[in-house]
Specification:
Blueprint lengths: L1 H4 L4 H10 L5 H5 L11 H25 L1
């Protein structure tokens, strides 16, 4: 969780570039389509948190670039 919450994390940034190259906030939102199909409620909740974080991060990058 520390790595996810750090404002500047080269480890997290490198992982995001590999796992989610050039995904927009809208494309990241599409990940939500998977969530209802997960049976484990804790997994669903955790995935929602990670998706929210990624969408917020991408939206912030887009806003600061404008």
């Amino acid at each position: 969780m520390d790595l996810l919450c750090e404002k500047v994390s080269s480890i997290r940034d490198d992982g995001n570039k590999v796992a989610h190259p050039n995904l927009s906030a809208d494309e990241l939102q599409d990940l939500r389509k998977v969530v209802p199909h997960l049976l484990d409620p804790k997994t669903r909740e955790g995935l929602e948190v990670v998706i929210d974080f990624l969408v917020h991060q991408e939206a912030s990058k887009k806003a600061s670039a404008s």
